[in-house]
């Protein structure tokens, strides 16, 4: 495979989806890479420096919500992440995350 994230992910952890999203907080949004792995894990990274930044804590109570072609929300007990996929791939994120939630 030889991807940069081979060094930062757990042994045998596979990336199922990778894309660029905008994280919205108040009036500001930050551009981040987002990885969905088979652990499952949702990890934000800096796509210019390839550094892991933060993680959305995965649990059975995690909920994902489609808000149109480009927007989706991820709800956890403590907070909600407002995400925009500039490629208009929001539905694919929602489907993939939902699939993993059924399994966990």
Question: Can you walk me through this structure?
Answer:
The chain is mainly beta and 104 residues long. It has one domain (4-103): PH-domain like, CATH 2.30.29. It has one helix spanning 90-103; strands at 15-25, 28-37, 41-46, 51-56, 63-66, 71-75, 80-84. Strands 4-3-2-1-7-6-5 form a seven-stranded antiparallel β-sheet, covered by helices on one side. A hairpin with a 4-residue loop joins strand 3 (41-46) and strand 4. It is globular. The two termini are 26 Å apart. The model has no long low-confidence stretch (mean pLDDT 95). Keywords: Kinase, Transferase. Residues 15-104 form the PH domain.
Q: How far apart, in Å, are the first and last alpha carbons?
A: 26 Å
Strand order of the largest sheet: 4-3-2-1-7-6-5
Count of individual helical segments = 1
CATH architecture designation: Roll
Rough shape?
globular
What's the CATH superfamily, by name? Pleckstrin-homology domain (PH domain)/Phosphotyrosine-binding domain (PTB)
- In the CATH scheme, what's the topology name? PH-domain like
What structural class do the secondary elements suggest?
A: mainly beta
Order of helices and strands: EEEEEEEH
Whole-number total of structural domains: 1
What's the number of extended β-strand segments?
7
The proportion of residues in beta strands is over 45%
CATH class: Mainly Beta
Helix content: 10-25%
Rg over alpha carbons: 13 Å
Organism: Rhizophlyctis rosea
GO molecular function: kinase activity
Protein name: 3-phosphoinositide dependent protein kinase-1
Keywords: Kinase, Transferase
